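Service request form, structural biology core

Requester: graduate student, group of Dr. S.
Request type: structure prediction, single chain
Budget code: on file
Notes: please return the result as structure tokens.

Sequence provided:
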Amino acid sequence: MAVIKADAYGHGALACAQALERDAPAFAVACIEEAITLRQGGVTTPSYC
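Core staff response, request fulfilled:
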């Protein structure tokens, strides 16, 4: 599980998620809004908050 909360610690959550999506089985985010942002950006890997 890759932790990408808080905008991937300032690195851009969507860009990091897209780069890691192939290798990470899931993502940890801080809140539902972050998970929604990833989903709206096309990330289909599960996100957990």
